[in-house]
Amino acid sequence: DAKTTQPNSMESNEEEPVHLPCNHSTISGTDYIHWYRQLPSQGPEYVIHGLTSNVNNRMASLAIAEDRKSSTLILHRATLRDAAVYYCILKDRDQGAQKLVFGQGTRLTINP
Amino acid sequence: GAVVSQHPSRVICKSGTSVKIECRSLDFQATTMFWYRQFPKQSLMLMATSNEGSKATYEQGVEKDKFLINHASLTLSTLTVTSAHPEDSSFYICSVGWASNSYNSPLHFGNGTRLTVT
Fold it and tell me: 20 to 30 Å CA-CA from A6: which of A38, A72, A95, B65?
């Protein structure tokens, strides 16, 4: 799977929007962009994924650059419960195995 | 509700003993499950792929004789850490996919097992 690059940490304030960037300059045409997050002392949980178009769900929005070399996870109104490590992962559509290869992720801190 | 149940959540054992961790798929049959290990302040590292009814596939550098994986049914995979040592102390996490070979489906993870070897 192609590699992603994320900032090690970010900080934001409660009730404000948060934009988490991810660079994936070597993305291939068949790679999906997945986001997971891991709250302290828990297993990761799925957040959102997309291929080319921007995506929205109840948790977040995913904005994908036109050249697909970068993407941004958007939390519209952060809460203290959103403090977690966020992982941006590329998953090849043509690969059957569902294993995920995790990078270092971005540790998001939310200030009250 | 929870899709994946992992047990125990915490375990403390003495050096030299073995510890078994269970991962159960609650809502569906899983032919494949994955085991990860996570050291403090580090990311998850894939250890092995557990295949129902066949041998597990281990990632490079993971000792298959030390980390025994059994996937005897479509809802249960177990990871046994044999002859545990303090350096095996870690957070072990399993995951299960919705459907085999589905790139468009999220993976679901257990809540992890914190193993401490004294």
Answer: A95
Calculated CA dihedral for residues B35, B36, B37, B41, nearest 10 degrees: -160
How far apart are the C-alpha atoms of A31 and A102, rounded to whole Å?
Answer: 15
Picking from A98, A102, A103, the nearest residue to B32 by CB comes out as A98
pLDDT, one tens digit for every residue, chain B (118 residues): 568 999 999 999 999 999 999 999 998 788 889 999 999 999 999 999 988 888 999 999 999 999 999 988 889 999 999 999 999 999 999 998 655 555 567 888 999 999 999 9
Q: Which of B42, B95, B103 sits opposite A91 (nearest CB)?
A: B103
Q: What's the angle, vertex CA A95, arms to CA A91 and CA A99, rounded to 5?
A: 60
Across A81-99, b (16+ Cβ under 10 Å) vs e yields: ebbbbbbbbbbbeeeeebb
**Alpha carbon distance A85, B43 (integer Å):** 9
Q: Backbone phi, then psi, for A37, in 5-degree steps?
A: -135, 155
Q: Which residues pair with A71 in a beta bridge?
A: A22, A64
CA distance B62 to B59: 6
